[in-house]
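User: Predict the complex with TLP.
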Amino acid sequence: MIDLRSDTVTKPTDAMRQASFEAVVGDDVYGEDPTINKLEETAAELVGKEAALFVSSGTQGNQISALTHCKPGNEVILEANSHIFMYEGAAFSVFAGVQSRPIVGDRGAMNPEEVKAAIRGTDIHYPETGLICIENTHNKAGGAIIPLSNMKEIFEIARMNHIPVHLDGARLFNASVATGISLKEYAACTDTLQFCLSKGLGAPVGSIIAGSKEFISTARKWRKRLGGGMRQAGIIAAPALIALTENMERLAEDHDNAKKLAEGLESVKGLSVINKVETNIVMVDVSKTKYDAAQFLIELRNQGILAGAFGPETIRLVTHYDVTSKDIEKALSRIQKALK
Ligand code: TLP
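Assistant: Here is the predicted structure with TLP placed in the model:
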């Protein structure tokens, strides 16, 4: 099977498993796990924030961030196709008690003027705008990179209105490798960010929230309230440290493989790539084949390829470190077969 469903499917390397085996651990709820402490310090330093917190997943990272920034009854401005709005089970409303205010972006990038216009005034009828969220890279826009200039403009507007900005940077490392813009430069345009260790970086579990010391201290309390306080968590922090410190630069290979895949798919009759492939995600329209997305996925599975549906006639293919350039060639010929 060539598994292109997501970059979350990677298996830990031997070095990661060995690191888990050898990890020095303690009780992290007492702040006594040296491996967790090292991971959090390394992560904070890497993105240029004062402090960081290890959490179970990207979703938990986004939710804890909303709980820490907002109070119930707030409104959060976010992009209409963002992961938080589309794929987190309305958790913003369920946990933080906030209402979402979606803005349709251009390849995931919200127009700063529209963001400005969406900020609520003081009218007694209105909720207060409690947070603005940005997603970079943007998943549903096909791994699209949100320009730094766009983030800067939105951050400036937010600052002038005393509203915090949170970045869902599940795949921020992909954006940084593709553009050469440092993680710190991106993170400087946000108050807080969440990034995933278990996507392209290849860790088996976990995400990081980073922000000010004060923010992270409150976020730590929220994590505990949610039952996310972990004990000898160094076991999972050790492979995450390898992911964080050794696996960033190789994301360029995933981007090359995604481009190679997209180029190959363009010459397959009936299929069209609908995103500009900038990172590791390829979105394909299958409407000109005899299949809808769900049927096409079955045909692909029969040929030994796993992919995901991202709409009734759209499938998503994601490259990652368990997929080689040779696998892409194999995948392309199997896709041809699936359509015969
Ligand atoms: N995305 C997953 C699925 O949930 C769709 C994937 O396979 O791409 N933010 C962004 C931008 C994400 O893409 C994801 C996961 C998350 C947050 C949530 O991360 P996890 O899965 O760790 O909760």
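The chain has a mean pLDDT of 98.
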